Amino acid sequence: MPATRSSTRASVMAIHNLIEAPPSPTQEQPATPVGGRKGKRKASPSSSPRNSSTRKKANTSRGADNNATVKSEMNLARPGDVAVVLPPVVTEEGRSLVPAKLSFSFEEARAHLIRADPRFEDVFERLRCKPFEHLEQFDPFSTLASSILGQQISWKAARSIKHRFIRLFNPSLPEKPDDYNMVDYFPTAQDVVKMDMASLRTAGLSQRKAEYVLDLAARFADGRLSTEKLLQANDEELYEMLIAVRGVGKWTVDMFAIFSLRRPDILPVGDLGVQRGVVRWFLALHSPDYNVTISPDKLPSNPENSQTPAQTPTASTSSQAQTPLQDPDALPSLGGYNEDSSIPPVPAETEDISKEETTEPSALPVPFTPSINKTLNMKITKSGQPVEPPAPLPVGMTIPMLRGRLDPKKKVKGAFLTPKEMEELTNPWRPYRSLGVYYMWALADTEK
After folding, report:
1. Is 445 helix (H, G, I), strand (E, B) or coil?
2. Which of 8, 67, 114, 244 is 20–30 Å from 147 (CA)?
3. Is the dihedral of CA 187, 189, 191, 194 positive or negative?
4. Which terms in the Gene Ontology molecular function aspect does this entry carry (predicted)?
5. What's the CATH class of domain 13-24+63-100+137-260?
6. Phi and psi for 441 in degrees, rounded to 5?
7. Does residue 426 contact residue 439 with C-beta atoms inside 8 Å?
């Protein structure tokens, strides 16, 4: 039986070591247009060499061929040790970045969901809708390649393999992955496609993963894939382009569309955590006596501050099925709710590596605290108006049926909900289902 989010905490977190995106623009630092990567990286208060406040700011200068921006060497001070000198960072001008902007109005989307279900108003106040509020630029190739590198392994192992992979193209980098921001040194698709299979295998890639990465690189190098094509494609075209890539399944495309491209109306019907969250959300709406229970060991360390607009979630878990496979590099299923995939390909903030090794980088939201039941069973809106009775459940669905689906023995082919049931229940959220989906992950964990 595939495991849910609560039992597969290691798989999704890897992305925050796999992909470290450039910082989001501020008023002092305008957004960089697609096609370039400029600006200073904001340092976080940490003893980590990578985030140390003693790290020298990199100056930029034009190369003689005017085709690249070359940053000067960066000295990273180690407490009680000699400084680590990194080689220059060369950013190809041809590397097009997805800009840090939305294709829709976040306020309009928020208002739409609140009209559809007044409970969303309190949810938005409890927890930032991070993919759509914390905006960053990112490179689609390095994001998707990092996702492939991390398939079916722990985030620590994925981070190590990514580091070794990058060093194939820049062997002068430090031997340890903790000494630099990998985003600055990730090779371009043009670089990767020139690398032979045997060399890629020396970085710890299996034969299949090496083939997947080369296939992805070839598609970006020859123009079958590009940032512009990904941005211009509609949702259906996006799926067609990316599922054609070896090693990329529908679930991975769903995650890429939500967390990276910030598409507003994506419903990952194959994600078990979203399924469970949707069941609990609508069960509480139609059954006031239903209460969500959360295992204490899954709650954030500081729950009073973890679900406010000013606080960024610091822990995340996987809701994707992670059943052990005979072939650890087996391709994800291309449809349905039995898909086994890797980790969400999302741009991530630079991780504070000074934290304990067990700290999980954030990708999905932290679980809601038990106080979420006040919201789920809301009788009065935030404005003091009585909550109107909900519309009837879709034809064929009942409260006992939804309660039964939370019993592992009563799932449908291993799923809490079928794709059709997911579509019918969340139809009022359209065309902004992605935002509602994000909060369903915060309802996915359950008491043991």
Report:
1. coil
2. 67
3. positive
4. alkylated DNA binding; DNA-3-methyladenine glycosylase activity; DNA-7-methylguanine glycosylase activity
5. mainly alpha
6. -65, -30
7. no
Say how far apart CA 181 and CA 26 lie, in whole Å. Answer: 20
Confirm if 270 and 250 have CB atoms less than 8 A apart.
Answer: yes
Which tokens hold the place of 186?
A: 């990730």
Neighbour-count burial of 155, counting CB atoms closer than 10 A to its CB (0-12 exposed, 13-18 middle, 19+ buried):
buried
CA distance 384 to 382: 5
Cite the residue boundaries of each domain of the chain with CATH code 1.10.340.30.
Answer: 13-24+63-100+137-260
pLDDT digits (tens, 9 = 90+) for 289-327: 899 887 665 555 544 334 433 222 222 333 443 333 333
Q: For 355-380, what is the mean pLDDT?
A: 75
Distance in angstroms (rounded) separating the CA atoms of residues 271 and 416 = 10
Q: Can you tell me whether residue 198 is helix, strand or coil?
A: helix
- Rounded to two decimals, the pTM is 0.72
- Altogether, the residues listed in the chain come to a count of 448
> Given CA atoms 140, 145, 146, 148 in this order, what sign does their dihedral have?
positive
Distances (CA, A) of 10 to 44, 56, 315: 24, 33, 11
CA–CA distance from 434 to each of 15, 110, 369, 438, 447 (Å)?
19, 11, 22, 6, 26
